[in-house]
TrEMBL record:
GO terms for biological process: snRNA 3'-end processing. It is found in: Chromosome; Nucleus. Its main location: nucleus. GO terms for cellular component: chromosome; integrator complex. Keywords: Chromosome, Nucleus. Belongs to the Integrator subunit 8 family. Residues 73-244 form the INTS8 TPR repeats domain. The lineage of its organism: Eukaryota, Sar, Stramenopiles, Oomycota, Peronosporomycetes. This is INTS8 TPR repeats domain-containing protein.
Length: 247
């Protein structure tokens, strides 16, 4: 599965498919030698056609978002385009992670009945969308919130979330510590904020209390653990919506 994450090689043009790759990497100025003149003209024609097609897709998507405002997939598709606009550069200057973040949160809210349904968020929202949501949070400086989502994946994926926590410990938002339930994340945070460089006794005490909380007891039945995870995730998403959608 492709992950749109800064730590992986990715160029996600999923909404456009193969045409997007052809358009994105076709030369702007074809060679004018006699051997390639015909090929160059063909490339320019195809490139122009593909640019028109991408523009049509964008306008159609805008129309779908307006006309079917309660359909999560169109908001998610719009977020994909805002996060990964068509560009030859891997990280486009036209990327708008803040707008994409809002679209992903709207899609998640609609898909889960505003997080009121008892079904788990991760059973409705696929992993690739959660990774892109995490990337948006990372780009707007919400490192702790971005790392939280990696708890939803297989343990071998934890390393990406742990790496995010190490990027800027001085900017950690303690309000999001409560949404960690996997011990590797909490233990890393304790180590970071116990170190002389990022020492924060208040953070360490808060994190230690979270580690010792009954909900995170490893001897709890799996059903209790799952219920706790679902509750934490619902509260986490509601908090994100309060912060990023309130305006």
């Amino acid at each position: 599965m492709r992950h749109a994450c800064d730590y992986r090689v990715s160029f996600d043009l999923t909404p456009y498919g193969d045409l997007a790759f052809l358009e994105a990497f076709a030369p702007d100025t074809p060679s004018t030698t006699s051997q390639t003149r015909t090929t160059g003209a063909t490339v320019l024609f195809v490139k122009t056609y593909q640019e028109d097609l991408v523009g049509l897709h964008s306008r159609a998507l805008e129309s779908l978002v307006c006309r079917c405002g309660r359909e999560p997939r169109w908001h998610c598709a719009k977020a994909d385009v805002l996060l990964n606009p068509l560009s030859k550069r891997r990280f486009s200057s036209t990327c708008d992670p803040s707008a994409a973040l809002k679209r992903y949160l709207v899609a998640a809210s609609l898909a889960t009945n505003y997080f009121a349904d008892m079904v788990s968020v991760v059973d409705i929202i696929d992993q690739s969308s959660l990774v892109r949501l995490s990337q948006c949070l990372l780009k707007v400086g919400a490192h702790v919130a971005a790392a939280i989502l990696y708890q939803c994946f297989m343990p071998e994926e934890f390393k990406y979330g742990l790496r995010i926590l190490q990027l800027a410990p001085e900017s950690h938002d303690e309000a999001f510590f409560q949404y960690f339930w996997e011990l590797p994340f909490l233990e890393l945070l304790v180590d970071l904020h116990s170190s002389p460089k990022y020492l924060n006794d208040r953070y360490v005490m808060l994190l230690t209390n979270l580690i010792q909380s009954p909900e995170l007891n490893s001897s709890n039945p799996s059903s209790v653990v799952k219920d706790a995870e679902h509750r934490i995730l619902r509260c986490y998403f509601r908090d994100l919506c309060r912060i990023y959608l309130s305006n």
